[in-house]
Amino acid sequence: MKRILTAFLALALAVSASAQQNARTAFFMNDYAYAYRFNPAFIPTKGHVGLLGIGNTGISAESNIDGRMFTTIDHPATEYEEDGMTYSREAYTEVALDKKYVKSMNKLSSTVDTDLISVGFKHNKFFHSIDLTLRGDVAARMPGNALILAFDAINLDEDEELDFTSDTFDKIKLSGNVYTELAYGLGWQIDDRLSVGARAKLLFGMAGADMQFNKINARMDGDMLYVNTNGHIKAYMPGSYNIPVKDGHYDLESIEDDVDFSQMPSGFGVAFDLGASYRIMDGLTASLSVNDLGFISWKNAICGEVNSFEIDTAEDSEDIAFIGVAARKPMHGVTAKVNAAVEYEIPGAKGLSVGLLGTTRLAGLTSWSEGRLVLTYEAPKIVSVAVSGACSDFGGGLGFALNLNLGPVGLFAGFDSLVPLFTLDGGYPGSTVNTNGRLGLSVIFGRKQPRN
Q: How far apart are CA 278 and CA 25, in angstroms?
């Protein structure tokens, strides 16, 4: 049981790998080379070439998890006697849970992505872009009472029993995808007021999983834990494998696997970005985009339904559940995102603007929304800076972005939420685990043209 709960808790809380996202603080920067990824109707003022690993890399971890719930306890070395012999216990550090900081519902959405290559250039009223990107997305949702129970079970000594009789746990979810994305985008400046754009993407899946339980009722009877639930488990992976079916259920104890990464990609899919930008009047512009509308269809998929299972806590059983064989539906959606924005250029302050951005991530139980106020300043030819403040389902955040055009080289750094301060006793975050950063170094070319 410990092994099961340890793996589940580690996946739900410790993964730091959602739709691809730039630092949203840079949303209103005309000089930002990758502005078209916010909205394909945004046409950057110059072309660019981004190279492997250094062109555009981002990481995000957006959650309402309070890092202060993790504390550490130092145990010094001690001696004890047994059967007339003296033994020594080594010093060790134990991670404990401060339950007063555990939320009733704990949510995490995390992304890592890096460009393998990116090219963008403007020709007449059109902007073309080609991007090859490696992405990893993870989302998790766990109620506080389930988190506390799992943590208590992990920290049980061998001779201890779990202090648990019965409880109900609502809406547990864990999902993730790793895939490569090949995208072609076209932005069209129709006239001085209106621009539209679209990006078409081919998705090459590497691996993925989706686990969701809508409601769990659990009770303890002696050493047996009985669970009734309604949920599903789906897994997508490379290579070939065989899980025998016994009495309509997957026989997990007899699994035969042969993961062969040479058989990747193990899934294929498509996705689209659509957007428009309209200048309502001089100095006032509104925009709307929907990103990552699509799916991945997997070649190798295990799809099962979970209704009930039982665990003998006195034994380390590998048979964790009776997973009923469901109709195979090896299609998994990627996470879509909507950006709605309005920007106002401040009269008499050339290059200074204020904008309001609303972002919604459409992902079922792990969906979230954010409102962000952004102040942007663009100096002629060289530098753009932006600062922002946000309020979201995960709390507030302060952001900063800097874009430099140094001749043929463009440098970008942006953060939507500053990296949380870490405590001195164990290195756990002293506040909400919520940050989003992006760095990039690109070759810039072409004559700068203002974006209408």
A: 20
Q: What is residue 391's three-state secondary structure? A: strand
Helix pair 2-14, 144-154: axis angle to 10 deg: 130
The tokens describing 252, both together, are 């997990």
Say how far apart CA 65 and CA 147 lie, in whole Å. 11
Distance CA(18)–CA(395), nearest Å, equals 18
Is the link from the previous residue into 76 a cis peptide, with omega within 30 of 0? no
Measure the CA–CA gap between 54 and 214, rounded to whole angstroms: 41
Q: How far apart are CA 383 and CA 45, in angstroms?
A: 13
Please provide the size of the chain in residues. 452
The lowest-confidence range among 193-202, 282-291, 358-367 is 358-367
Q: Are 56 and 438 in contact (CB under 8 A)?
A: yes
Q: How far apart are CA 130 and CA 122, in angstroms?
A: 12
Tokens standing for residue 179 = 């895939």
Task: State the pLDDT at residue 43.
Answer: 92
In degrees, to the nearest 5, what angle opens at C-alpha 194 toward C-alphas 188 and 200? Answer: 35
* Cβ contact 216:164 at 8 Å: no
Report whether pLDDT(450) > 60. Answer: no
How many angstroms separate the Cα of 122 from the Cα of each of 48, 96, 187, 289, 297? Answer: 10, 55, 9, 20, 34
E strand or H helix at 397? strand 395-406
* Cβ-contact 180, 211 below 8 angstroms: no
Backbone angles phi and psi of 367, in degrees to 5: -70, 155
pTM: 0.78
Residues 323-335, mean pLDDT to the nearest whole number: 62
User: Which of 5-14's residues contact partners 24+ apart within 8 Å by CB, and which partners?
Assistant: 5/150, 5/153, 5/154, 6/154, 8/150, 8/174, 9/147, 9/150, 9/151, 9/154, 11/140, 11/174, 12/108, 12/140, 12/142, 12/147, 12/174, 13/65, 13/106, 13/108, 13/140, 13/142, 13/147
Instruction: Report DSSP letters for 165-203, one per residue.
Output: -EEEEEEEEEEEEEEEEEEEEEEEE-SSSEEEEEEEEEE
pLDDT of 318 reads 45
